[in-house]
Amino acid sequence: MVKLIDVEDAAFFLKDHHTLWIGGSGGGHAVPEALIISLEERFNKTESPKSLTVIHAVGIGDWKETGVNRLAKSKLVKRSICGTLSNSPKMANMAINGEIEAYTLPQGVLSQLTREMAAGRPGLITHVGLHTFIDPRIGGGRQGTKRGPDLINLIEIEGQEWLHYKNFDIDVAFIRATTADEKGNLTMENEAVFGENLSIAQATKRSGGIVIAQVERLAQNGTISGKDVKVPSIFVDYLIVDKEPWQTYTTKFDASYAGLIKKPIKDIPKIQLDVRKVIARRAAMELFPNAVVNLGFGIANGISSVAAEEEIYKDVTFTVEQGIIGGVPALGNDAGAGVNFDAILDQPYQFDFYDGGGLDLAFISFAEVDHTGNVNVSKFGERIVGPGGFINITQNSKKVFFLGTLTVGDFKAKIANGELSIIQEGIKCKFVKDVEQITWSGSFALKRNQKACYITERAVFDLTTEGIILREIAPGINIEKDILQQIDFPIIVPTNVKYMDSRIFSPDIMRLKQELKKKK
Q: Strands (DSSP E) along 372-502, which ranges?
């Protein structure tokens, strides 16, 4: 039988050198925060356990103090393996300073790997990560200065290259659900995402490990439907109750995130007209009827607000890697959730769909672009981010759009009268000769005939076999001063470069719905 324990006792199941897998996603979505706090508090009092390997598929934290930031303590963690460290800058700093071994692997890989581990298969074999910093010929997913063991092998099957991601033995798993009955069956009716809780629990049990679930409430046996159970009791060992969890780190509870209500369009937040909205608007003009689309974090996330404002979000199918299909992806630090969706899948199944080429379009932010079209989002300067779902998404979408400003750092622009003017140029160019880390390979994309486009506030570029070509410029922009002088390598400039649609730079809606109908 599953046992109910005090939250303070949960961390005592962890011993020195154990491997801990933490469920949940990003900004607090289904994150077992109370269990993470229990581990933090135990270590603060006893300096035990030591030298943990901490694994989580998605970054976990509020970009400041919560989530995995709580575990960024000398001697507590030996090794961090995750999709991204952007949510946990304190852990990222430990990697930069050489205090821990750190790896940032594709989010989809880690998510899918839990199923392979649960089934006793010899790891995950996939093309995802080839020719990026994940590839063992380039970096093997390592971040920081302290070198750890190889986690990835390059293999060949029938003449084709693949990456083999090795399994882990899990000693303890922390997961979160909404309700547990007296037997320990878990449901997730109030959660914004499902993640890979079932696979984590199954993989942990196969390793002989312990599964501890944080829940909001307990229910009598026989009062929850078996169809609603996401993790059966046979995969759970212990329960702790946190009666007032936050649905995410910024939202106490939103019934639309849980799929309990549909939110009126007028209640979906709009974004102000600035350069970020300009980029999102230009990107939204690439949508076509019935397209299946992924929207990434950051600037790309604003496309969902534009689509709601233009009343076209029902004409396409937006998806989010955490499992959302349809509706409007959430904005800001709640990204990963969604409202008015058609379905929520367990995360590994969403990535199966992505890896199989199911996406028509992907819109995703960039930090650096280089002369071969390579894109970096995973490491720049002293900042470690990691790929998150970026590699799964960008390598496999039929067409990918990279979104961002052309320069960064004190950049200021004015939008007025259907034009864009640069008030103060950014101090750093983002189109650089060579990216610091390859998160997407331009040459590998061209080899596979994948189409790619780069959308900024002042210009639109395409990747071609001849190089990067300028396709459009914003009204009010000077090609030489505002574009060519802000790029660290030569680009192709045709004789006649189109202007971006002036409606993008107007406060009025663009009336994209009528245009979308014409694309049918």
A: 375-376, 379-380, 383-384, 399-403, 407-408, 412-416, 419-424, 428-429, 451-455, 459-464, 467-473, 498-499
